[in-house]
Write a structure and sequence with these properties.
With 716 residues, the protein is α/β, with parallel strands linked by helices. Helix content is 43%, strand content 17%. The chain contains 28 helices and 21 strands. Bound molecules: adenosine-5'-triphosphate. Adenosine-5'-triphosphate binds next to helix 4, helix 6 and strand 15. Residues 454-496 are annotated as: Disordered. Pfam families: AAA_19 (PF13245). This is AAA family ATPase. Residues 182-572 form the UvrD-like helicase ATP-binding domain.
Amino acid sequence: MSAEIAEQEIAHEQEFVDRVYRQLEQSARNAEALAKEGHGRGRLGHEGGLVERDAMVFQAAKRLATLNAAHEGLVFGRLDLGDAADGPRYIGRIGLRDDNRDSMLVDWRAPAAAVFYQATAADPQGVVRRRVLRCAADKVVAVEDDLLDAERGEDLVVVGEGALMAQLSRARDRSMHSIVATIQAEQDKAIRAPGRGVVSISGGPGTGKTVVALHRAAYLLYSNRRRYESGGVLIVGPSGVFMRYIERVLPSLGETAVALRSLGEVVDGVKGTRHDDPAVADVKGAARMAELMRRTARQAVPGAPRDFRVFYRDDTIVLTGRDLSALRRQLLSGGKRNRQLPRVFSALVDAMWRQVRGERGRDRGREEFVDTMMGNVDFVEFARAWWPALDATDVLGWLRDPDLLARVGEGVVSQEDIALLSKSWSGAGDRARDYSVEDVALLDELRYQLGDVPESHEHDRDHEPDPLAHLVDEGRPEVTTVSDREYATGPRTSVRTEDDGYAHVLVDEAQDLTPMQWRMVGRRGRAASWTIVGDPAQSSWPVPREASRAREEALGDKPRHEFHLSTNYRNSKEIYDFAAAYAARVGLDADLPNAVRSTGLDPEERRVDDLEQGVRAAVVGLAGAVEGTVGIVVPAARRASVQGWLDTWDELGEDRLGGADARIAVLTGLDTKGLEFDGIVVVEPQEIESESATGRATLYVVLTRATQQMVTVSAG
Ligand SMILES: Nc1ncnc2c1ncn2[C@@H]1O[C@H](COP(=O)(O)OP(=O)(O)OP(=O)(O)O)[C@@H](O)[C@H]1O
């Protein structure tokens, strides 16, 4: 194939791409005009004007956002079909029509685009030639063809060596990119799977599970926009760094109505960023913690009055500790703690009225007794303190008291568990509200145990007017509506459990969710369809059976659809062979995909006398050898010291600045989950392996993160 012919083809495609961009601008102008008109109508003030305006402005703004997001690499595919009379079909990130309403560009998710991904030479499905256009901004820089039907395509020019290889060899930056142009047939099936029930996508490292799941989210939004945009789509991933890594994929596909949350951010209003030590994390994630939280949520409020005494007419009325415990149990048997707030006053007054024996008191009747108590400042204060509206963070705080922890933990968790939990919480001091990722699932458990504070229980007609009502109102959290969610760009502000549900829940790196995290995520997907992505061999949770039970409970009896991906698109063959040999050596039952790209560069295992100098040489070497990112992966115990070294290695310049998001960054094994780097330096792999009960799986994850080159460095 001569370069000249390739140039001609590129120039030809450029003409079409130019036309598409002109049309895009026209559409953007139309959307803007519509938005302006919408604002104008609002001002007219005629009936219904506001509603109409809101709808118009909203639609126009959304269309504008989509158009802006689509700007980069707008057109990426072309199909020449058997029936030449139809002309070529172009595929893009969004669909676009010309002024005559004729289709110029087919949205990649539309049924008419499916053959672009599914046609093969063995089964061309009417496609003669498939062409991928590679663009830089709005300029076509290369075209890559597959001739699928050699007979009918005799006259067609065929250019390029394959879009996929070109895409896989590109340098990595700190963001995942969309793969719309090169989705492979087995991936496409998982992306376009029907939106009902649970879609599980499994596969070994680098098989595209994450990127496929994200494209699936975009597909679902396209195929049933009303359901998924108003009900919301929640995407849960392992860490903040991971969420930043994937956050650009959906906007680049024109979708913004999605909540991306790391496991530490699933609960509105709290944020866990640090991890507990593995031993503590293992306890906090275990299923037995649910019972511990249930018991905690039923405890008397620490520091609240233990009894109450008042004189009424001829009687001394006393609510003893025992009375109050019985009342607490009685109220709790009627429903969740906060839900019972409207009943507290009557329950207390009833118990006290039973003690009114004197004639003067009885003669005046219960009503007067109630009125008197409502006006009694001491009583109202006592009742507020005895049964306040409780927040999960306050209740978790109770467990900082080792005695209380030991009391509620008895018979539920072991003595060792209690010691570990106590060390984690009672030592918190100033960090009392600095939650770990593992604490967040416990807070969620407590939220559901406590229940929401009723919105306006003062209107509750079945019960006495409640002097505590105003108290409750002060603390009433905001409630979000469906339209808030549609308009929302940032995190939701709701803290009510009833607003937690989504229409679709997508869990990435699902093999790592603890039982408590499954419970937390499961609550958000009771009525949802699900996409679950994972690879059991990469799991860092030590009790897989317990986690799968919790996962089954979260998913209920929803129908399951399984998809398996079998090609590793990330690692060079040399790197993946090394990792697979490690998995076999340490006895991991790994799902071994087929790595398709070879670089001729084997990983290196270096032994050095001076660890710092050895790591420095490896990092500087890789930073010069690869174009993209370099990850320095260290045992958790060495993280701070290696970061300190990196800070002093001035020859690396700006590339090491910016912490976890820099071109050259220090990460622990667990931090690397789901990420990838062009070059990886693994510091003391043996220590990473022995650092936790599931260290072998963690090291396997680490060994499967590099796209180009990998060096391990150990001292001695
Ligand atoms: N069809 C494709 N075309 C181009 N690149 C692809 C394709 N499929 C996957 N990739 C790339 O392969 C890399 C690995 O993908 P991804 O991170 O989604 O894999 P994964 O299965 O989630 O990996 P792991 O389980 O190891 O974290 C990414 O860079 C992704 O963009």
